[in-house]
Design a protein that fits this description.
mainly alpha
Length: 231
């Protein structure tokens, strides 16, 4: 049975090389942390086994005592990253009952992970080179639990029957994943953006009527008095 996946966040530069650790599980986790940081910054193709070993402070051959290959290491890092987000979403929606409120809670947790500069989730999910490689089958399996959460949430929504729920889900998740491309902290918080996203999707579903902003009437200028022509 493979070891349980553990939480992954980018370690600081100062923590990349640490003293030798006697416990094999601790050493393995350290390698996962270091590899997650390198894969997140450079992608699968941009990282070699030697670079991972050097960053972890071990010999290149020692890496194979914990992982059979760079491929296996990447698959485990990818799975741990997605599992972390899935845990966060499930924890966020656990005590929420309304279908739209549950969706908003999920979007809030998902979005929080995506815009967190210390999270490795976004770069791992967007590594196109890895997704188009022979690893694709294993990487897609890692996303099944994540996708299932959204499938169940959207299945509970009172949508217009004409709406395809799979397309609805794909549009929603794609939008959340794209937020880091334009997000800048300050104008709106993550919670406010999540609320806006759900409001837009709820309005487009036909379940909610959005009142248009009142139109201001144009001021009518008084007609100019005609000048009398002196005879």
């Amino acid at each position: 049975m493979p070891p349980a996946r553990q939480s992954l966040t980018k370690p600081s530069v100062a923590k990349r090389v640490q003293p030798p650790v006697e416990d094999a599980n601790d050493r393995r986790q350290e390698i996962l942390q270091v590899a997650a940081d390198l894969f997140a910054r450079r992608g699968y193709d941009g990282v070699g086994v030697r670079q991972i070993a050097d960053a972890a402070g071990i010999l290149g051959g020692s890496l194979y005592h914990h992982f059979q290959s760079k491929r296996d290491l990447y698959v485990e890092v990818h799975g741990a990253a997605l599992s972390n987000v899935a845990d966060m979403i499930e924890g966020e929606i656990a005590n929420v009952t309304g279908p739209w409120e549950r969706l908003e809670a999920a979007c809030r947790a998902h979005l929080g992970a995506q815009v967190d500069p210390e999270s490795v989730t976004l770069p791992m999910m967007n590594d196109i080179a890895a997704m188009t490689s022979e690893m694709r089958g294993d990487l897609v399996k890692d996303r099944d639990r994540f996708e299932l959460i959204y499938k169940n949430l959207i299945a509970a929504l009172p949508l217009n029957p004409a709406i395809d729920r799979n397309i609805y889900r794909l549009c929603l998740v794609s939008l959340i994943n794209a937020v880091p491309m334009w997000y800048r902290s300050g104008r709106m918080s993550v919670d406010e953006i999540a609320a806006q996203i759900v409001m837009i999707f709820r309005a487009s579903s036909g379940e909610m009527t959005v009142r248009p902003a009142p139109v201001r009437a144009k001021a009518v200028r008084p007609a100019k008095a005609k000048k009398k022509i002196a005879k």
